[in-house]
Amino acid sequence: MTGMKRRLAFVALALLAAVAVQAVDYGVELLNEIGINNADETDWYTDHQAALWLTVPFDRANTRSLAVEGRLYGARQAETEDFKGYLNLELFRFSYSSTPGTIAHISLDAGRIMVQDITGYILNQALDGAQVHGTFAFGNVDAFMGYTGLLNARKTGALMSADDYRDMESDVPYALGAKRLVGKVTAQFPQLIGPVDLIGELTGQYDLRDKFESDQSQLIHTGYATVSASGPLVERLYFTASGTWQTGVLKTDVEYSETAYLILGRIDWFFAGSGKAYAEFLYTSAQDDTFTSFLPITFQSAGELFQDGYGNLWKATIGALYNPLEFLNLDIAGKFFMYPKEVIKDEGVYRGTELLAGAMFLVRSDVRVRCEGSLFFPKDEDTQYQASLKAILDL
Q1: DSSP structure class, residue 309
Q2: In angstroms, rounded to a whole number, what is the distance separating the alpha carbons of residues 250 and 218?
Q3: At 224, which helix (H) or strand (E)?
Q4: How far apart are CA 296 and CA 314, in angstroms?
Q5: C-alpha of 368 from chain center
Q6: Which of 48, 225, 274, 356 lies in disulfide reach of 323, CB 3.0 to 4.6 Å?
Q7: By mean pLDDT, which of 81-90, 152-161, 240-249 is the weakest?
Q8: Helix, strand counts (H, E) of the chain
Q9: pLDDT (tens digit, 9 = 90+) per residue, 107-124?
């Protein structure tokens, strides 16, 4: 009888293990890209990535789950002959969601998660921390607190000081980067004024480098207050408008103010069931006696070949996305870059124009191929170009 019980227990455990294995969703993504770049001189480059991801639910209702993604990078850059590789943990997120109720619904994400501010231009990267989302009768509230110091310096995103950029120069597979404490609180009030949604957000970061190092050259602490409104203008036409005020300090041998602002406006026109056209205007403060250049937490280049960030910039973008066939996605955009005010006397404010176009082909359900190209026409300089072919395989 004891032997029979053991066999039954073994069968039961085997069945539970089989159910658990079937519940886990996992896969591998392989990306290979080859292209030609003519920024300084004509050269070819390659980019290779291999990602392993999995999602583990802890209950049948999927109110608790774990998502993990790790990625191996390898690339030959256009400006160098070296082939460099490194590892990165892109995602390690534990998610919890309470049972929806009539009064409130609370959800939690903790671990290494993607975090973005409401503009997408201040904070847009992975961070180690926790985020709470609450849905209430009056609207939605989000709160996040996290840390950047455990991120790979090659993929940190948080590039604000000269020390942060020096961290990126490491050749080791996993080097630690900027050490910043980052926080964000967001309140959304749907349809507060007719069909218009209003969002208010406070974002900030505190530089902790001096707590870990004794030879830092700069310390930067910044805070951002953003107000955004969005909603429909007419059928299929939507607008977004926001303004951000930045305050902070930069400490070297002396202390400098970091006071700046960002103004953003956008129109989206859904001209077809599978097509969208858009126009966006972005303006950040110019450096003068009152304001400094806008300094976001996450550095993002404002263009593909135009490599400057969003400080001291006036940028206009028009573009369109279209899905004419089930297996084909097309996109095109034009970007116009200017200074907010004349930097050099009699040189004007115009900096250059960039044109981008791409096509994504769904060859099979697990194979995608993307062709893309860009042209940059800098003021008083030679035209730059880039073209690439990218293949993505999902296993």
Answers
A1: -
A2: 7
A3: strand 219-234
A4: 15
A5: 22
A6: 274
A7: 81-90
A8: 3, 19
A9: 999 999 999 999 999 999
> Among all chains, which residue has been given the structure tokens 């939507």?
238
| Tens digit of each residue's pLDDT (9 = 90 or more) over 167-179 | 888 878 888 989 9
Spell out the residues 6+ positions from residue 96 whose beta carbon is closer than 8 angstroms to its own: 63, 64, 107, 108
The C-alpha atoms of residue 146 and residue 129 are separated, in whole angstroms, by 4
Residue type, 225: A
Ranges of H-type helices in the chain: 2-23, 162-167, 209-212
For residue 103, what pLDDT is reported? 76
Closest CA to 31 of 54, 55, 53, 51: 51
CA distances from 20 to 44, 59, 91, 366 (A): 46, 10, 21, 25
CA gap 181, 149 in Å, rounded:
8
The tokens describing 165, both together, are 């950029």
The position carrying tokens 């994504």 is 360
Which string of DSSP letters, residue by residue, matches 166-207? HHTT--SSS-B---EEEEEEEEEEEEEETTEEEEEEEEEEEE
- Token readout for 324 is 């004419």
With cut-offs at 50, 70 and 90, classify the pLDDT of residue 273. Answer: confident
**What CA–CA distance (Å, rounded) separates 219 from 207?**
6
- Considering only 3-17, 33-47, 141-155, 275-289, which range has the smallest mean pLDDT? 3-17
Residue 151 has pLDDT above 90, yes or no: yes
